[in-house]
C-alpha cells in the first residue's frame, strides 16, 4: 500500500497550478476571440462603407459612409437595449438588433429605387427635349446640355454627369455605358441604344427619340393603370403580413401572462418561427401574383 501511495502522491496536482493554467487558457481564449471579433468588424466596416458609398453615389446622395455606419450602430444598440428592457426576452432583443442592422441598407435601397423610378418617369420629357433641340439644328452634345439645363432632378444630375465625363475625355459610348450601369432599366437601355446607333450609323435621331418618347409614355401609362388595379392586392399582402405581429403586440399588452409561453418557451419560439415563415411565404406569393411585367 505504501508503494502505491507514493506514485499517487507524486501525481497529485497543486490547485494553484490548475487555477493558473485555467486563467492563462481563459486569457488566451479571450485574446483570440477579441482578435477574431476585431478582424470581422474591420472586414464588415470595409464592406459596408464600400457598398453603401457606391449605392449613395449612384443615387447622388453624398453622405459619409463612416458616419452613417456609426449612426446605424448607435441606433442598433439603442433599439436592442429598449427591446430587451421592454420585453425581458433575449430573442426579441436579437430580432430588434437584426432589424436595426438591416435598416440602413433597406433605406438606401428604397431611396435608390425612388431615384430610378423618378428618372424613368422623366424619360419621355428628356427624349422630347432632345428631339426638339436636334430638330432646331443643335448637335448631340448641345442637345444633352440644353436638356440637362431645363429638366429637373434626377435627370438633370444623370445628364450632367454624362456631360462632365465627356468633358474629361470620355466618349459618348462610354458615358452612355456608365448611365446604363447606374440605371439598369429598359428605358435607359433604349435611350442609350438610340443615341449610339444614331451617332454610329447615322439617320434621323430626332424622329427616333420622338418615337421612343411616345412608346415610353404609353408604357408608363399602362404601368400606372396596372398599379392602380393591383393596389388592393398589394395592400392585402401588407395587411396580412403585419396582422399577426400587431395582434401579438396587443395581446401582450393586455394579457402578458397568457402570451408569456409564446416568448419564454422553446415551443413558443417554434410557433413564432412557423408563423413568420408562412407569413413571409404568403407575402411573397401575393406580391408575385400582382407583379405584372410589361
Please provide a written account of the structure.
The chain is an all-alpha fold and 294 residues long. It has two domains: 15-225, no CATH class; 230-290, no CATH class. 87% of the residues lie in helices and 0% in strands. It is built from twelve helices and no strands. It has helices at residues 2-11, 15-58, 65-87, 90-135, 140-150, 155-167, 172-182, 186-201, 205-229, 231-254, 256-264, 266-290. Helix 8 runs antiparallel to helix 9. The protein is flat and about 95 Å long. The N and C termini lie far apart (94 Å).
What's the overall average pLDDT, rounded? Answer: 78
Based on DSSP secondary structure assignment, what is the total number of beta strands? 0
Approximately what portion of the residues adopt beta-strand conformation? under 5%
Which outline best applies? flat
Q: What proportion of the residues is helical, as a percent range?
A: over 70%
Total helical segments = 12
SSE series: HHHHHHHHHHHH
Largest sheet at a glance?
none
- The low-confidence parts are none
Radius of gyration: 30 Å
Distance between the termini: 94 Å
Q: Which structural category fits the helices and strands?
A: mainly alpha
Number of domains: 2
Amino acid at each position: 500500500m505504501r508503494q502505491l501511495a507514493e506514485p499517487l502522491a507524486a501525481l497529485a496536482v497543486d490547485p494553484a497550478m490548475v487555477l493558473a493554467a485555467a486563467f492563462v487558457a481563459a486569457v488566451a481564449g479571450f485574446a483570440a476571440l477579441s482578435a477574431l471579433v476585431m478582424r470581422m468588424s474591420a472586414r464588415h466596416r470595409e464592406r459596408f462603407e464600400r457598398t453603401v458609398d457606391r449605392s449613395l453615389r449612384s443615387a447622388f446622395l453624398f453622405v459619409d459612409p463612416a458616419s452613417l455606419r456609426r449612426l446605424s450602430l448607435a441606433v442598433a444598440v439603442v433599439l436592442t437595449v429598449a427591446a430587451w428592457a421592454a420585453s425581458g426576452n433575449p430573442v426579441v432583443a436579437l430580432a430588434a438588433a437584426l432589424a436595426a442592422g438591416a435598416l440602413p441598407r433597406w433605406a438606401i435601397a428604397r431611396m435608390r429605387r425612388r431615384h430610378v423610378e423618378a428618372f424613368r418617369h422623366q424619360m419621355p420629357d428628356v427624349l422630347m427635349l432632345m428631339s426638339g433641340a436636334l430638330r432646331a439644328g443643335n448637335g448631340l452634345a448641345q442637345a444633352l446640355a440644353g436638356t440637362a439645363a431645363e429638366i429637373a432632378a434626377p435627370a438633370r444630375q444623370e445628364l450632367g454627369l454624362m456631360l462632365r465625363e465627356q468633358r474629361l475625355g470620355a466618349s459618348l459610348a462610354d458615358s452612355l455605358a456608365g448611365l446604363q450601369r447606374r440605371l439598369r432599366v429598359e428605358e435607359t437601355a433604349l435611350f442609350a441604344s438610340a443615341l449610339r446607333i444614331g451617332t454610329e450609323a447615322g439617320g434621323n435621331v430626332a424622329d427616333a427619340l420622338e418615337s421612343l418618347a411616345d412608346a415610353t409614355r404609353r408604357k408608363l401609362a399602362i404601368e400606372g393603370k396596372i398599379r392602380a388595379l393591383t393596389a388592393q392586392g398589394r395592400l392585402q399582402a401588407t395587411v396580412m403580413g403585419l396582422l399577426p405581429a400587431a395582434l401579438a403586440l396587443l395581446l401582450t399588452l393586455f394579457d402578458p401572462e397568457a402570451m408569456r409561453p409564446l416568448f419564454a418557451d422553446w415551443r413558443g419560439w417554434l410557433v413564432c418561427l412557423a408563423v413568420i415563415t408562412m407569413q413571409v411565404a404568403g407575402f411573397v406569393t401575393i406580391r408575385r401574383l400582382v407583379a405584372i411585367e410589361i
